[in-house]
Write a sequence for this structure.
C-alpha cells in the first residue's frame, strides 16, 4: 500500500478502533525493546535510540525539552559501586558544618541587624558538597587535571565552616562574616558575603553569586577547555567545570540559555 492509502485507512478507523490499534502498536514496540535489552544489553539499546534520534533529526523533527530527563537514578542499583568513605563519620562532620554555618550567620546578625546570610542554602546542599570535597573534587595539586568548581554563592557560610574545620580559618574570622570592611573582631579577617576573588584572593577563585555570572561562567569555561584540547593547546584530560546552582537558579533563563548551545562534543559540566 502507498503512504496515502495507509493514511486514508487510518482516518477511516473509528476512535475505538484507533485506540485498540495504538495499544497493540505500543505493546509491540515495548516488547521489541525488552527483547533487545534482555538479549543484547544496554549498549545495543543506546545504539538503537541514537539511530532513531538521528533519523528524526534528518526528517526535520526536533523533540521538545530534550534537556529534561525523568526523575530517576541514572545508574541502576546493581551497578552502583560501594561508597568509598565512612558514611557515619561523614554524616557527623556534615552535621557539625551545618551547625557552625548556622551559628556563624546567627552571631553575625546579633552584632548588626540586617546582615542576613542564607542559612538554608548550605543546609540543603551540604551532603553534595561534602561528597565532592571528600571523594570527587581535584585541587591545584592535580595540575591541568584540576576541577573548576563555581560554588553557589548563597552557600558560602558552609564553605567557611568547612575551612574552619580544616584550620584554614580561625574562630575570629567566623565572627567577621559579612564584615570585611570594618570587622568587629580585629584579630580576624573579614569574610565576604559571597565568593569573590577580589575580596578574598587566597580563598575564592570565581565570583558566582549572580546568576548572570556563576553558571554562565561554568558553561563557557567548559566550552573553552574543549576548544583548547581540540586545537592541541591543552592535553586531552578529564578536568571538569562544575556549576553549583540553587533551586531557584534552574528556573532562570540565564543559565539555561547558553546550556542549550551545542558544545561541539562531550560536555565537561
Amino acid at each position: 500500500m502507498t503512504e496515502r492509502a495507509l493514511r486514508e485507512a487510518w482516518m477511516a478507523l473509528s476512535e475505538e478502533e484507533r485506540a485498540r490499534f495504538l495499544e497493540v502498536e505500543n505493546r509491540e514496540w515495548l516488547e521489541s525493546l525488552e527483547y533487545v535489552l534482555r538479549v543484547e544489553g544496554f549498549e545495543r539499546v543506546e545504539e538503537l535510540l541514537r539511530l532513531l534520534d538521528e533519523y528524526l533529526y534528518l526528517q526535520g523533527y526536533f523533540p521538545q525539552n530534550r534537556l529534561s530527563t525523568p526523575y530517576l537514578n541514572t545508574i541502576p542499583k546493581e551497578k552502583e559501586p560501594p561508597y568509598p568513605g565512612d558514611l557515619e563519620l561523614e554524616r557527623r562532620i556534615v552535621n557539625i558544618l551545618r551547625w557552625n554555618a548556622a551559628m556563624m550567620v546567627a552571631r553575625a546578625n546579633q552584632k548588626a541587624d540586617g546582615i542576613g546570610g542564607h542559612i538554608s542554602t548550605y543546609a540543603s546542599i551540604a551532603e553534595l558538597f561534602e561528597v565532592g570535597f571528600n571523594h570527587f573534587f581535584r585541587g591545584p595539586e592535580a595540575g591541568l587535571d584540576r576541577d573548576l568548581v563555581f560554588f553557589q554563592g548563597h552557600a558560602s557560610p558552609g564553605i567557611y565552616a568547612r575551612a574552619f574545620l580544616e584550620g584554614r580559618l580561625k574562630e575570629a574570622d567566623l565572627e567577621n562574616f559579612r564584615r570585611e570592611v570594618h570587622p568587629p573582631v580585629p584579630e580576624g579577617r573579614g569574610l565576604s558575603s559571597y565568593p569573590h576573588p577580589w575580596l578574598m584572593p587566597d580563598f575564592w577563585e570565581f565570583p558566582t553569586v549572580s546568576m548572570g555570572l556563576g553558571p554562565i561562567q561554568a558553561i563557557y569555561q567548559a566550552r573553552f577547555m574543549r576548544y583548547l584540547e581540540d586545537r592541541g593547546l591543552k592535553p586531552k584530560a578529564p578536568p571538569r567545570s562544575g556549576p553549583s546552582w540553587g533551586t531557584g537558579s534552574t528556573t532562570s533563563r540565564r543559565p539555561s540559555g547558553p546550556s542549550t548551545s551545542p558544545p561541539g562534543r562531550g560536555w565537561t559540566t
